[in-house]
């Protein structure tokens, strides 16, 4: 089974702090994603990466950055946390599939509160 | 623009059948996924459609009509454990990478 592990289930930080959310997958997947999930808004893509050291902006990248130094690890960084970044953050990974049928596999999520 | 619509909430009775609809308008289309998400847990993959028609997988089936921008998830013989949110997501391929565009999800409550 694919395992996507996020470093924390719950995290509380203060406004202005630099926050790191870590995600590790064990299936040698090429693609990794960071989403945030908010009530009434669904999952929104923040950043994704299709290879080591490669990154692409998603739909809501402002205030965030990412790092992918190793294939199995994808980090989300909140450069200066703000209260509107309080949310559930979900990491996902998927493999390259020319047919397109391979799903994204999600971690359990990190519920981040910014005070 | 990108738009995926699904009902916010639905209720049903144990043992019944429920159909959750999803309509989409996206710039690209390379398949549609359904995920199940129990409260406080990760979304888990249920089904995938890329061609028109019905895909059946046990109690769950998913249908796609690309010309109508429409899909539905059909759950039969409902069980209490089916109470969850169901997420519709359209795959918009970017190079070799799949970008998923999610609907806001349908919260299904199953009552005894």
Strand content of chain A: over 45%
Helix content of chain B: under 10%
Q: Please describe the biggest sheet of chain A, giving its number of strands, its sense, and whether it closes into a barrel.
A: 7 strands, mixed
The quaternary structure here is: heterodimer
Which sequence of SSEs, written as H and E, runs from N to C of chain A?
Answer: EEEEEEEEEEE
Radius of gyration of chain B, whole Å? 14 Å
Mean pLDDT of chain A: 93
Q: What form of chain B results from the Cα inertia axes? A: globular
Strand tally of chain A: 11
| Helix/strand class of chain B | mainly beta
Sheet/helix structural class of chain A: mainly beta
Rough outline of chain A: globular
Give the distance, in angstroms, between the N- and C-terminal Cα atoms of chain A: 36 Å
Query: Level of helix content of chain A?
Result: under 10%
Main interface: chain pair and counts: A-B, 28 and 28 residues
Q: Given the structure, what is the number of helices of chain A?
A: 0
Q: Tally the helices of chain B.
A: 0
Low-confidence stretches of chain B: none
Describe this structure in words.
The complex is a heterodimer of chains A (115) and B (112). Chain A starts with a strand and ends with a strand. Chain A is globular. In chain A, the strands form 2 sheets. In chain A, strands 2, 4, 5, 6, 9, 10 and 11 form a 7-stranded mixed β-sheet that branches. Chain A has a 4-stranded antiparallel β-sheet with strand order 1-3-8-7, with no helix packed on it. Chain A is mainly beta. Chain A is 0% helix and 52% strand. With 112 residues, chain B is mainly beta. In chain B, the strands form 2 sheets. In chain B, strands 2, 4, 5, 9, 10 and 11 form a 6-stranded mixed β-sheet that branches. Chains A and B meet through strand 4, strand 5 and strand 10 of A and strand 5, strand 9 and strand 10 of B.
Structure summary:
The complex is a heterodimer of chains A (115) and B (112). Chain A has 115 residues and is an all-beta fold. Chain A has strands spanning 4-6, 10-13, 19-25, 31-38, 42-49, 56-57, 64-70, 73-78, 87-94, 105-106, 110-114.
């Amino acid at each position: 089974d694919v395992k996507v592990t996020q470093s924390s289930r719950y995290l509380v930080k203060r406004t202005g702090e630099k926050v790191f959310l870590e995600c590790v997958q064990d299936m040698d997947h090429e693609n990794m994603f960071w989403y945030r999930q908010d009530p009434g808004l669904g999952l929104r893509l923040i950043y994704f990466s299709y290879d080591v050291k490669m990154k692409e902006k998603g739909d809501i990248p402002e205030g965030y950055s990412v790092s992918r130094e190793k294939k199995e690890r994808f980090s989300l960084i909140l450069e200066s946390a703000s209260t509107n970044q309080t949310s559930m953050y979900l990491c996902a990974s998927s493999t390259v599939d020319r047919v397109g049928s391979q799903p994204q596999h999600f971690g359990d999520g990190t519920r981040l509160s910014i005070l | 623009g990108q738009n995926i619509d699904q009902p916010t909430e639905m209720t049903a009775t144990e043992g019944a059948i429920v159909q959750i609809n999803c309509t989409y308008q996206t710039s690209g289309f390379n398949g549609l996924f359904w995920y199940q998400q129990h409260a406080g847990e990760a979304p888990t993959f249920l089904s995938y459609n890329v061609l028109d028609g019905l895909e059946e997988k046990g109690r769950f089936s998913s249908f796609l009509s690309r010309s109508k921008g429409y899909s539905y998830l059909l759950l039969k013989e409902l069980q209490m454990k089916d109470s969850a949110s169901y997420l519709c997501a359209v795959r918009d391929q970017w190079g070799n990478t799949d970008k998923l565009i999610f609907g806001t999800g349908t919260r299904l409550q199953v009552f005894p």
